[in-house]
User: What shape does this take?
Amino acid sequence: MDFSFTDTQLLQRESIVDFARRELNDQVRENDQAGVFPLENWRKCAEMGMISLLTPEAYGGLGEDLVTTVHSLEALSYGCEDSGLVHAIVTQLCCIVLLNLYGSAPQKDKYLARLSSGELIAAQSITEPDAGSDVLSMRTRLEGNGVGWLLSGGKVFISNGPLADLIIVFARCGSGKSAFGEISCFLVEKSAPGYSMGKPLQKMGLRTLQNCEMFFDSVCVTEELQLGKSGHGMFIFNEGIEWERALMTAAHLGTLERILEKSIAYVKTRKQFGKEIGKNQSVSNKIGTMKLNLELGRLILYKMAWLKDQGKRATLEASLGKLFVSESLKSACLDAIQVHGGYGYMQECDLERDLRDSVAATIYSGTSEMQRNIIARMLGI
Assistant: This one.
């Protein structure tokens, strides 16, 4: 088994890290405090090719496989200190994946190139006030009107929502079939009559990422706007969530590596009682655990990505990776603050922002509790 990356992949990683450090880290603290999305940095990432990684070359993309893509996202998150921006890019990539896998030729022609260039911003609209982990309980409905369907309902916590030009909406068909077969998926443009959104939500962390509620008041959607087949929404969701968890896990690992290296640098220079604090086992053990979790997380991530590149399901690996790495990231942030002492608690150190951002990682894309349930189910329990 070959664990090495190609020379091209390694050069690409180096280039992305250099780009992120050089172009994306100004004003991160100020943007976080103000809750401002760095649109100019979004455009820079698009020019760098970060948004077009998974788009086929026929639509102006790089046509990379998932292994190369998660390797690149790791590099971006390692170099870029704005986790909200990275999350926005991951959300865009997830939408591109769904459109590429399930979109019709006219849909791809209309949207893929513009999404991949960053000209259009996309969002997935799934979560509802009464349907978070329990997706099948969604109440947003589709009612036939003779020429298509009328879409009515509300969604919440939608990433990229306030900026979205195109929304991928999941809704219940109400066909009388089983709940699993009642969900369908549609494309809705922000200009669609009957669509509106709430104000950007104020959050504990990931403040540069824009989230909002969405409201659909008898929005007319036709067959031309349907993504995939009628009643296949949950198949689309389940496939998409595996890609999403792989991409999110890669981003979390990049952040984890950055926090690890920051902590190593600090414990080698900070001295107490006449010696570097890293010489104390209580400190060095925390560093060792961070490194252990980083390497274990990578093993799960790249197995997950390899499986998807082979056209195989990675349900178990996606949940294992999402659970382990998100929890490891949150723990690493807490340990890093403890290692840095009083300085780690200060805003100027930026670890407090990393901690606030990391808490959400154990919630979005399926909570840690849901990942444990999925893992148990996959083991036949």
User: Anything to note?
Assistant: The chain has three domains: 7-121, 123-233, 235-379. The mean pLDDT is 96. The beta strands are 122-125, 141-144, 149-159, 166-172, 183-189, 195-197, 211-221, 271-272, 275-276.
